[in-house]
Automatic annotation (TrEMBL):
<feature type="transmembrane region" description="Helical">
    <location>
        <begin position="127"/>
        <end position="151"/>
    </location>
</feature>
<feature type="transmembrane region" description="Helical">
    <location>
        <begin position="197"/>
        <end position="220"/>
    </location>
</feature>
<feature type="transmembrane region" description="Helical">
    <location>
        <begin position="12"/>
        <end position="35"/>
    </location>
</feature>
<keyword id="KW-0762">Sugar transport</keyword>
<feature type="transmembrane region" description="Helical">
    <location>
        <begin position="384"/>
        <end position="402"/>
    </location>
</feature>
<keyword id="KW-0812">Transmembrane</keyword>
<dbReference type="Pfam" id="PF00367">
    <property type="entry name" value="PTS_EIIB"/>
</dbReference>
<dbReference type="InterPro" id="IPR001996">
    <property type="entry name" value="PTS_IIB_1"/>
</dbReference>
<feature type="transmembrane region" description="Helical">
    <location>
        <begin position="55"/>
        <end position="79"/>
    </location>
</feature>
<keyword id="KW-1003">Cell membrane</keyword>
<keyword id="KW-0813">Transport</keyword>
<feature type="transmembrane region" description="Helical">
    <location>
        <begin position="172"/>
        <end position="191"/>
    </location>
</feature>
<keyword id="KW-0472">Membrane</keyword>
<feature type="transmembrane region" description="Helical">
    <location>
        <begin position="278"/>
        <end position="298"/>
    </location>
</feature>
<feature type="domain" description="PTS EIIB type-1">
    <location>
        <begin position="448"/>
        <end position="525"/>
    </location>
</feature>
<dbReference type="InterPro" id="IPR050429">
    <property type="entry name" value="PTS_Glucose_EIICBA"/>
</dbReference>
<feature type="transmembrane region" description="Helical">
    <location>
        <begin position="86"/>
        <end position="107"/>
    </location>
</feature>
Amino acid sequence: MKEKIVNGMQIFARAIVVPVLFLPIIGIIIALSSILSNPTIVGDGSSLINVGKYIASGLWPIMNNLGILFCVGIAMGMAKDKKAEAALVALLSFLIFLGANNEWLTLTGKLVSYKTTSDLYGTGQTIILGFQVIDMGVFLGIILGVVVALIHNKFSNKEFPGAFAFYGNTKLVLLVLVPSLLILGVAFSYIWPVIAIGISGLTGFINVSGYVGVFLYGFLNRVLIPTGLHHLIWTPFSYSNIGGTLAVGGKTVFGAYNIFLAQLTDPSIKIFDPSSKYLQYGMVKMFGLVGAALAFYKTAKPENKVKLKAILIPAVATSVLVGITEPLEFTFLFVAPALWIAYSVFDGIFQVIVVALGVRTYSAGGIIDFLTYNLPAGISRTRWPIAVVVGLVELVAFYFLFKFIITKFNLKTPGREDSEVKLYTKKDYQDKVSNSSVKEAVVKTNSSDLACVIVEALGGKENIETVDNCFSRLRVKITDADKVDEIALKATGALGVIKNGNNIQAIYGPKVSGVRTAVDKYLSV
């Protein structure tokens, strides 16, 4: 049972990343457009103000309808095959639910009267695509996406004989979903208000717990990275009412990230909402890990420092610039788990410090995101210089913390191993696996075909059920975990390999999109 639960959480965590991958692009463009629409920057009466508003207005419909995005993305991400059909059925299902729920509220006299959309704030109802429905926020899309995926995986390959053949496959999925969605349209009218009370209570507990809540949020967001489940921590706080609710410009906005963006495009707001406390988990990416890397270098054996520098510099640059931390974190995660715990604790502590000092920044990504979001917002609204000062203190603190723990317990961190510090080359890989089945596969196809090696290291095509990726990990659902060759995967450039039941995560860093594309192409042949 435990394995099934963990496996289900891994599948869901992998799927929820599918829509999230696109949101930073939308956010960055909205942040940049706020520069053009800010009269303080471009001057009162400037034509650029309208240009900025025009750009933002084209993108806000996405942020205001995240439920649809999550519904389609999760269904597609969880689908074992026929992903395109799963996405289309998810869209149809979302629309069916809206119509059904609106009609039931109408028939039962539960519709709340309103003149403007803002009048519905706090009533438990909202407007989605013109339908007045129960206000479930992004959870509507998440729940429907999961329901669609489960039914899709069960019925999408079911065939019927003769004249009924047309109603098989994904058409059968929709046929099964229609009555399910009609029932959910009724059920959620009664169930969700109760759940909403629970969510409100959870939010209240986190807020009442103050800095303890912030610490736990920061700690869990980091310590769960090895499992890949950290997405289940920050995602609901960023995009749902768990992370806060605020009325901005006559519209109700849910989630810390959405609230930050909404405030960014409204110059009338003098200081940002405290919900930004859930957006500070990128501090360690820009500062803390730099200190950790310096400690690795300082404590390395003298003869290894030159080679270690060549490994650390690109890994640190990746973390600082774009906020992808795994290439650096996985250099010490498995060899020094105690150091990982200390690292997560310190990260939580420094998030508490910036929040206590009244910082209201967006600090979820690297320095590019930090500058893009916070500079247009201004110092008075975000107090971003305080975040920078605290970050520099964090850098120094992490350096001394890591240095002390490494030397005190003689940890075999990078540069202190008994073996030579090096990155595997293709020749190294071929030498290592000269007697393995992977070597045979490489010779049979092409020694330069990275995708072939990865697939064979995962047990071959027949052992692979689904392939996805997040910001830095290739996430694969396999049939038999015993067939996975971790050494071979690491030799292809994977910085680490994580096994959770039949879910495999290979850490490739920023190049993971290219790796996933190559693997998909190879599997389709």
